[in-house]
Structure formats: structure tokens, C-alpha cells
Amino acid sequence: MSIINKIFKFKADDDNFCTAVVLAAGNSQRMGKDKILMPLGGMPVIAHTLKALQASECINEIVVVTKYESLQEIADICHDYGITKTSKVVLGGKTRLESSLLGVSNADSRAKYIAIHDGARPFITDSLIERVVHCAYQHDAAAPAIAPTDTVRVLNAKGTVVETPSRDLVALMQTPQVFMTEMIKAALTCAQQKGVKITDDCSAVEAMGYKVTVVAGDPDNIKLTTSRDLYIAEGIFAERSGK
Q1: pTM for the structure as a whole
Q2: Among 4-18, 51-65, 98-112, which stretch is predicted with the lowest mean pLDDT?
Q3: Could you write out the DSSP letters of every residue in 85-149?
Q4: Which of 89, 153, 186, 225 is the most exposed place for a label (fewest CB within 10 A)?
Q5: Are 6 and 131 in contact (CB under 8 A)?
Q6: What's the CA gap between 110 and 186, in Å, rounded?
């Protein structure tokens, strides 16, 4: 897999209007409590995520998708931390696919591109946002990924190794994943109609035969999933803040 690793400087405008859909509707079963609202460096995790998107010149609008009990708290966080690009905080669905489609459907009518990002990835950087969005401008669909450092093996249902692919041919996917609006809307709608289960939004796009171009991700762009990830996140935050 070829991973593009370039830094571009440009500013989004109405001709390339980009809406960031932030997914924050998960039930955090593996964490044991709502991870997006947990404190990290004195702020809720979701505040870090939103502040990064707010600061990016590539992003014109933010739509946050969350669960019912968090609607008001997320709206308050947007107000308290000056997330002025947030146009809507909307109720999510029962699955990631449903939440993604609801977010995309609530984007501004001017949106030509949609950047779908996990709310629990608070360490997204401006350079990575630029890299992915610019690549989507060129190739219609783009996503960041990092190369695995461990050996990867494919197992069958019995746990027996059936293949050991080269690490050069596999990648660990991250977000934001950026697509032309009509492409991702059609792909998510089709996947929902067919009852397809997806673990990321590229899966829906690829199921329709579209190609996704991969750009270099960031090892720090972790998704907070388990309580152990919080310790890692605190370390990343301390390093970045010089504490």
C-alpha cells in the first residue's frame, strides 16, 4: 500500500466547502464510562477534538453526532470553548453507520466534501487534516493510516494462521476520512439499505467500488477505547504541552 506523506498549505472556501462530521454517539462499553466527556489536560476529550477542527482552515463547518443524554452537554462545550464552526449537534443512531449517515445528512447544502472523524481521537493535528482533505480534493476519497510495527497474521475461525501478509501491504486506518459528499452519502445509504456492518466509513465507500487513497497518519492520533488508552493519552498530552 502506497501512503502519501506530503504537507500542503491551502484554505478551504465555498468552492471546496468541507464539513467535519464528529462521531460522538458511542456507548463506550469498553471504557466503562463516556470517554468523550472524560477530562484530559483539564478539558473534556471532545473539546480537544473540536478545538483542532475549529482551528483548521480546511474545515468550514462542524456537525457533532452524539447520544440523547449528551446533546446539551456537547452544545455547552461548543459554547464554552468557542467552537463557532459547529452548526448542529444532532442525535446519533444505534450504529456507527447510522450516526455517520445522520451527520452527513445534516451537513450544509454547500458541502462538497465531508470529513468524518472520531470524537474520541483528540490528538488530530492541523497538518494531518490538511493532508487528508487536500488528498480528497485530488482523489475524491482519502483516509490516514499508519504502518503496523508488529507482524500481521490472518487467522481462520479456528485460530489457525492462514496467511502472513507483508507489513508493506497492510495499514492501520485512522480518521478523519474525507469523501466527496455525494459519494459518502450514497455509500452510507446503500450500506444501510443492505444491512452491511462497517467499522469505518471507507468500508462503505469501497463496497460501492470506489477507491480510497491513503495518506500518512500520525501515531499520536489514537482512538480512546479502553481505560489503558487514557494513560497513553495523558502521556501524549504532557509531551505536547511540555509538562
Answers
A1: 0.91
A2: 4-18
A3: TEEEEEE--SSHHHHHHHHHHTS-TT-SEEEEEETT-TT--HHHHHHHHHHHHHHSEEEEEE--S
A4: 153
A5: yes
A6: 17
